[in-house]
Structure formats: structure tokens, C-alpha cells
## 1
Amino acid sequence: MNKNDALKRINEITEKIEKYNYSYYVLDNPDVDDYDYDMLMQELKALEAQFPELVQTSSPTQRVGGIALSSFEKVTHSVQMGSLADVFSFEQVQDFVSKCRTEVNSPEYVVEPKIDGLSVSLEYRNGVFTRGSTRGDGFVGEDVTENLKTIKSIPLKLRNAPEFIEVRGEVYMPRESFFSLIEQQELLDEQPFKNPRNAAAGSLRQKNSAVTAQRKLDIFVFNVQQIDGKELSSHKQSLEYLKQLGFRTIPTFLLCTRYDEIYDEINRIGRERNEFAYDIDGVVIKVNSFAHREALGATTKVPKWAVAYKFPPEEKETKLLDIEVNVGRTGAITPVAVFEQIILAGTAVSRAVLHNQDFIDEKDIRIGDTIVVRKAGEIIPEVLKSVNHQENSVPFLLPSVCPVCGTASVRYDDESVLRCPNSECPAQLLKNLVHFASKGAMNIDGLGPANMKLLTDKNLVHSAADLYTLSHDDLISLERFADKSADNLIKAIANSKNNQLDRLVFGLGIRNIGQRAAVLLCEKFHSMDALLSAEKSDIASIDGFGDVMAENFCNAMKEPHRIALIEKLRSLGVNMNYSVKSSGDNRFAGLTFVLTGTLPTLKRDEAKAIIESFGGKVSSSVSKKTSFVVAGEDAGSKLLKAQELGITVISEEEFLKMNE
């Protein structure tokens, strides 16, 4: 296929996919089956890989993420992204309505749910999505364009668009996605997000857009910030126009003229809010006419033509029946309140985390107490206080031994939690294994929590080393595996043996040793043997380390069970070294490469190792100093930046020819 034919076909596929995306993500009415959709996407990826110069910013392939940023550029909003005045009573709502009536003649009001998320700006030129930014302080936000592209309901190209339009929307995390995320975080012993709003904000500000893509965010667009080539006179008209352009607009709104209509609508939304698939924290009441808004004006902080009515938090009393004690991946011993079931924010709850002994002591929580519970952020139940004690009740103390394996619990000086120090404790096994195989550690594709639990339940895996002794026959006997999936997992496990040492160090799950700390350790000590014999003072001298981290690491590397695991992994062929091999050939000396997209055969680390072995440098960003951009499938903004600067773009095939 020549370039002209490829461009024609790329445009045809792009138009179809955008139409299917609109039907599925905006209208919730899919009009193509998954297989046909996937085949179109695969064809588009193949064409763009063959002709990387034809990749467009509005291509559906640019949604998948994968671009890692060192920081977010600042964006100055040409139209302020202001906040609204909050009101907490119907009297205040009525007062707002009355004031508007005294200032303008017969105002109309639009009443709509207040989505609990993160406000963003989306900018389009000639219908193409060019920039997206966070609200920030209302005047200056951050450029999160690549992360916003991963949200499927954001159109990359508008239908019948004006020359320029900037819109405002609320990015949110659906409840189902939120619950899946915190379940995964808890399994990995990570600090879970407290509510979907925080989860959405944290996900949108990920430095790696691939992580954002996994979080399944969504958006409702609710305002036109500025527009060229189209006159709009009211909020209702603008919402209808936004929908015509292809945006997913605020799901429900009502035009009202009287306070009693507004009152009834607020109550209706309040009654039904727990049935929504997303969180709302109130109701917004806005004057409809833009001319009336102009007349009403604004204070230095908020507009006078709108208010946000906030729902009060719901609190209820219940009886504390018991305090359970759970053990996490890193041995954290966590108390959990078990109480008589109550209904909060529309759902039944009967459990809440009590955090640690200090929390229990501060609130003097005892079994049998009458306690007050609410939902933090309308999602996570929390115990606020104890109202009264049962007669003859006694203070609750966490056990001095692990409730699962009986090992004496410890409390480290720098922490408020009790821990079981026995990493072979059965309660910690599954979570340790999931961490070992996770993306940041050994990156074994296909070994997520569900499959790992299956392997442990069937007694096929009792330690990380057992993963490397699994056979095709072991897997094929399990209900979740067929021939191909079994082969793929065996291959993924085998490939992980060749990982750089820092992945293994992180995968060992040593307290306070994260991914960056593991890299720093391996950059100073280039082998597992050197790490095993490293002195505390040498480790503490590493920039970013301190005495506590150094002591934790040294102690962990002296534990007999950890030494035994490392030696077992060594005997099974897992790499124990950290180095970049030099070929003695400096053909790339003075050259800077940027890698973008998914290469057909090489992993990013492999391509980087080749470049560095020939004396070259790999950069994470494209600039005038870049010599070559190596582009694969799903190449994103780096490819576009290279084209703008006239940087030479090469394929993997051309790159490999340079190494011959």
C-alpha cells in the first residue's frame, strides 16, 4: 500500500472508530461488536506503524497512554475557571433566588447535579482536541493533555465544530472503577484512595499516561468557556450545543423559574443520588441567561449568578460488635470495627478500618460501645467517635502476636502500626506474590491477583521461587487456563528471569524500599552478592536514603528466609546483576535517541541497552538536541514534536540496521 492509499484508509477507520466510541461511551448504546471494533483498531495500528509520519493527534490510537512525563507544564487560563459559592441550607438557596430576582427581570435557573470530581478545560481548534488542563487555582493549571486523551468519552475530533472552542468538564471515577482500584491497592498493601474524587485527581496527574488509561476515568462536560464562530445566549442552549458537537454532557438538568421547583429538584436528586454510577456531592443552581449573568456579575472570588448546594454528611449510631485484626502484605496488623449493619448514603455498611492502636486509644473505642459512623466522601465508612461504653467494658488492645502465625508483633520507631515480622506468614503470602509479579517489580504479564490466588489455592505456589518451576501441565489443569494462555504465562515467567536486578530488589517487598530506592541501590551495588554484604553506612550514604531505610534493608537482607529465597531464585536462573554491557563500539557517541510507542520486537529497556552499549544517550523528551526518534505502534506526542522540529524519525527496522 502506498502512502496516499494508507492515508485514505486511516481517515476512513478513524471516522468509524470515533463514531463507535461516541455511541458506546457517550450514548451508552454500542452499535458494533467488540471483535469488529478490535479488528479496526488493529488495522489502524498496523498502518500507523508502517507509516509513522501519518499518525495524527486525533487518532484513536493516541488514547492508550504510555507517555511518561517528568513534570506537567503550566497553563494560564485565558478565561478564569472559577469556583462557586457553597450553600448548606434551603434558606440560603431561597436567599440566592430572591437576590437574583431583585437584580434581573424574571430569571430562569438551571438545576443540575454537582459531579464530585476534578474540573478540567478542553481546547479544540478546527475541531481537533489540542490541549487539556486542570483547573489549578482557577488562573493557572497544568497541561494533562496526554492523560485526558485516555478518557474514551472525550472526543478527539468534534462534529461540525467551530474554529475554536474551550469547554469545561468534570473528570470523575465511576464507583465500580473506584472499588476495583482500592481492592487492588489493598491487595498490594498500598494506601487506598479515600474516595472517587481523590482517586480521579490522583489518576489524572499520573506522570505515566498508561497508568491513567488503566484507571477508567470518565467526564461530563457542562460549560462553554469561550468560542469563536458561534453565538450562544443561555446555559441550556450551550448544553444542547455541546451534545451536538459530540460531548458527553451533564446527564440531567431542569429549567426552573420558581423556588419551589428548585426545592423539589434538589430533593429529587438527593433521593436518587445513590442510584447513580458516580458520586455527586450536591446540586448546582445557575442563572440560565448569559445576559442576566453579565448583569449579575461576580465578587472577587465567585460569580453571583450561581451557587452549589452541598449535601450534609450522613451520620448514624450503631453498636460495635467486635474488632477483627487483619494482616497485610508487609505484615501490617490492622484493626477493623464490625458493627450492627446500618444504611449510609444508600448502601448497607457493617465494617470500618480503625487504623492502629493510637486511633483506638484516642477515641477510647471498646467492644460493645455505641459508636457514630459516617461515610468519608460518601464512600469509605469511618468511625467518628464512641458515644458511650457498655457496662464493665475494657479498653481494646491489639494482640502482642500475629493472629495468623503467632509470631511476636513489633512496632518500629518510625511507625504507628504493629507488624508481623514473619514474611512467610500465610496471611502475607498471596499479597507478597502479587507484589513480586506486579508491573513495577518482575512484570510477569498474566499473573494478576486472580490467577495468583488460583495458584496458591491449588498449592502450586508457596513462594516466589515456585513460580519458576511451574509447567504447562500445572497450568492447563486449572479452570482459568487454556493451551495458549498457559504457554503465554510460562513464557512471561521465563522472560522475567532476564530483568534488571532493581526489579527483583523491589519485588522482594522490603519495607520502605520502593522502585526508585531499588534503582539507587543497584546503581551503587551492581550485584546481589554486593547487596547482601553491603554495610549500613554505605547504604545510608546514597542520596535519598537515611539510617532507617539503610537499617531496614540490611536487616532484611540478613533474614534466613530471604537469603534462602534469593539463592533459590539464583539457582533457577533469575538475573542477579545490574549492568549495561559495553560493546567497545562507540558508533552512537554524541547521539541522543528518544523511544516512543511500542516497538515490534524490542522492549524499551532492550533498545535503551543497545543505544547505551554503543555510547549513545536515551532521553525521555524530544528537543532540538535529539538525533533520532525511534517510533513504534501507539507513538504519541513525542512523534508529533519530532515532526514539528524536523527530527529524523526511524522505525525499529531502521534502528536495528544501524546496529549491524
## 2
Amino acid sequence: MMRRFQTMALVGAVILGGCAGQVIGQTADSRKMAQVNPAGGEDHASPFARRGLAGKYLSSHFAQSQYDWNVASRYVNDVLAADPGNVELIRRSMILAMGTGNIDLAAQRAKELIALDDDTGLALVILAVKELAANDMGAVQETLAQMPEGDMTGFIKPVLLGWAAAGQGKLDTETLNETTIHLYHGALIATFLNDKDAMIKFTQAMIATGTLSSGDAERAADMLAILGDYEEAKLLYEGVFVQDDSNSRVAEKLAAVKKENGGTIRDLAEPLSVKSVQQGAAMALYDMAYILYQEHSDSSTKLFANMALALDPSLTDAHLLLADTLTRNGRFEDAIAELDNIGPDHPSYLEVQRHAAELLAEAGREKEALEKLNKLFTDHNDIEALIRIGDLYRSNESYGDALQAYNRAAKKIGKTIPEQYWHLLYARGMAYERQGDWNKAEADLKAALVYRPNHPYLLNYLGYGWADQGLNLEESLELIKRAVSLRPTDGYIIDSMGWVQYMMGQYSEALPSLERAVELLPYDTTINDHLGDVYWQVGRQMEARFQWERALNFSEDEKVSERINHKLRFGLEGMKEVKRATAE
């Protein structure tokens, strides 16, 4: 499915032209100037702001290069007022307006552009979105009929036409193609129109593609669950859960289909949340935004995510996608403001606020992040917020504080930690291990493994922890081999397997494992050090010293560097003598 859409980022670049991208060759000084007043403003937003129309034109580009589209929009509209027939300025004004969520101005500019220019694909989409919002389905169909051929047309036009027809009570999906997203929207439109035969047809066609991503599989499972095919839905949900067993939403759906609980499924299944044509079309626009986000076409992502929100302001996924896009471009304040659009009465409010706290921490405002998380617990009894507090401390290597937060959460839960909070056991186990309390760490990790027996990183952490203690080496190797089978290209897990094999004296088995790990993670100190050790044991001493030199070059830990220097001087046999002399 993704190969079909690999050109989407190029499409976005063509749509947006020179006004969409980052400024190439931007200097450190220009970045510093942008940070003087991130909110913009004529006096401080750029070094060009006081130089008349030319200055404002340059300022709009400067502000956009900093991903500050609000300021960029204000400047370009100032320039456009003096040159109202300039096609490129109209196009830039339209793009910036849509990218800041101003659908009214964007649609006005779209009409102006359509009257003056032939390159109107994006303008027609924006105009169609405005007409969808006004519930004028006939106008939507007339507008989309004018769209020129192209990749964007091929993706979005058939889906929007399908939803416009649904707004007239008709099932018109003839122009949909065979991609999973189009087939899903065919099923979604059929669900909206209560056409069971079409639901079945599109769902079966979607599954038959054989190229389902995790998201596609969950959507197909939702459709099967609605249709009452619980066994097939269960198989798909289980496949998704294997890929991401921290997905609580899928866990709830899986539990519901196992119990054949139709009521719960109806509450959870995404297709039944679509109550209007506008919501369905918003999901289609979000899908395009998500594809563009995956292709790192962030400016185009903003456009389509805001189009989705123009039709369905409560579409949480679109707000989250915009926040992630803003974060990726260093606009933490704007990302947090985007999340604040989701109010306390929204089902996702707590999850979104936790994400906002993470953004605060990423922006270096850890005190505010902790205050926000503590408030979530105080005001909403949100145990998950306490766990996130522990995670924040653990990420900063404040393991004692992390354990206080984790234990506070565990006490609030009660005597037995249920499956819902398996990740608390995992996180607390890691914190105990870092604190040097292996007995408590082992107990938590084993308890977590009962709930998540196929979690690759949990398997690896427990297995490596045993090996590090010189304990249960056979069982440790078995756990890590299972982890490797689940994540065959993860260099850290492959290193763990090689190191356990090394500790068991299986040097010939350890060698290819550690060589593969270094191939995957060539700049990791520990992995290079491990490979050096196994080279020494198999008699390849020159290569061993080369790997230790690499490990030393990448090391940022004084004690680790000292230990590697000893090996470079004395070799592994000499290291044993040093240890013996130190002990005496």
C-alpha cells in the first residue's frame, strides 16, 4: 500500500511550490533571530520586517522557514493587499490560510485563484471542503469534476465524491481504486448507508489485498466485528496486538470479540463513530495527511490535517498529527496549544494531556510537565499520570524519584497489579535494576512477562539482566532468542543474544551475532566492545584491538573508557591479572 503513495511527498512539494519548504542554507544567526520572539510580530519576527513591502515579503518566507505560519500568513496578506492580482501571492495566501486552519480565507483565495490560473488542483480541494462543511453536496460534485488529473486527484477526489454521494443517500463508489484506504472508505460509506452487502464486499476486498498494515488490519477487524464475524476479527486483532501489545484500544476490542460482546464492539469500533458525511470526509482527509506525515512532507500534512478539522473539529487524531508535526519542527508551544483544543469532556482528554506533558518535558520545561501530570492525578485520579511521572524521572536517570512515583501508583491500584497496568511492572523493574536491586527488578519483570509473554524488549531486558548477574544463562538465551525472532533487525537485542552466548563460552555462535549487531549499530560503544572480546577469544587479536579502539572512540563514560584502555594494554588475559591484583 505504501508503494502506491510514495510519490505523495513529491505531490505535496509540487502543490506548495517554493513557499512550502524549509529555507536551505539557513544560518545559525537567522535561527537565533527567529528565537527572539517566536510568536512573531512586525518588530521582531525577522530582520526584514521594517523594510516595506519587500521586507514583508521576505519576512513571510522567513517566518514560514521557522514553521510560524500565522506570522507568515499575516505578512503575505499585507503584501497581497498592495498587489491583489498576483497569482503566486494568492496561492501562498491560500496555502498559509489553510495551514493555519482558516478555511474561510483559504476558500476565498481558492476562488480568486481558480478565476486567474490553470494550476488549481489544491484550490478545488479546499473549495470542495468548504462546500462539504456547508452541506452543499451538489456543489461539491461540480467542484471536484473540474479537478485536473494527477496523483492528488487520484487519491482524494474519488473518496470525497463517494462521501458527497452518501450525503444524497446514494452509494457511489465506482471510482474508488484497489488500495486499502479506498476500499476502507468504501466499507465506511456502506456502513454509513447501512448497506450490509457493500460492507462485506469492500471489507473482503480490503483483506484480499494481502498488504494490510497494522492500522489497516485494525480497521478491517472493526468492520468484521460490526458484521458479527467475531472469529475473523479476533485473528486480525491478535495480529495487530502482536505488533504492539501496548495498544490498549486493540486490547479492549480483542477482549470484546472474544466474548462476542456486540454492545462493547459498537462502542469501540471506529466505523460506527461516523455520524455524518462531514466526519467521513474528514477521516479521508486525515488519511491523506497521515500518508504525507510518514513521507516527512510536513507542510502538506498541515494543509490536509486542517482540512479534516474544518469538517470535524473533534477529530482527535488530526489534532495529534498536527501536534506531532509541529513538534518535529521544534514548535513545542504551538504543539501544546494544538492539544489544548481537546477539552475535558472529550474521551481522549487524559491521554492528550499526558502527551502535552511529554512535549513540555521535551521542550525543557520539566517542572511544568510534572505539575501537569500531578494535576491530572489530583483532579481525575489518573493513575497513568503517576506512571508517566515515574517515566519522566527514569528518563533523567533519577531512579529513586522514579520508584517513588511507581510505588505510589502501585499503592493506588491495590495489592495486585492487573494486566491493564502491566507496563508499570516493566518500568518499575527497569528502575529497580538501574538502582542495583536485582531481586525486586526480577520479580517485577517476571510479573510483567506473565501479561506480555511475547514483548521483545521485556524478554530482552529480563534475559540480559539474568546474564549480567551470571544467572539462568540457558533460560536467558531462550528468552533473548524469542526476542530476536520478534525483532530480527534490532541491534541491541541481537547484541544481547551474542553476549549471552559469549558468557556461556559459545564463542563461535556469539561471533556472527555480535558482527550482525555492530553492522546494525556501528557506533555503539558496548556492542563494539563485546565484538572485540569475542574476537580476542577466537584468536583474532588484531581485530579485537580495532573494535576496542572503536568502542573507546564512541565512549562517553569515564569508567567504561578506563576499562577499555586496560584491555587495549593488557588484553583479556591481562585484564584477569589486573582484576586478581586489585582483589588482593
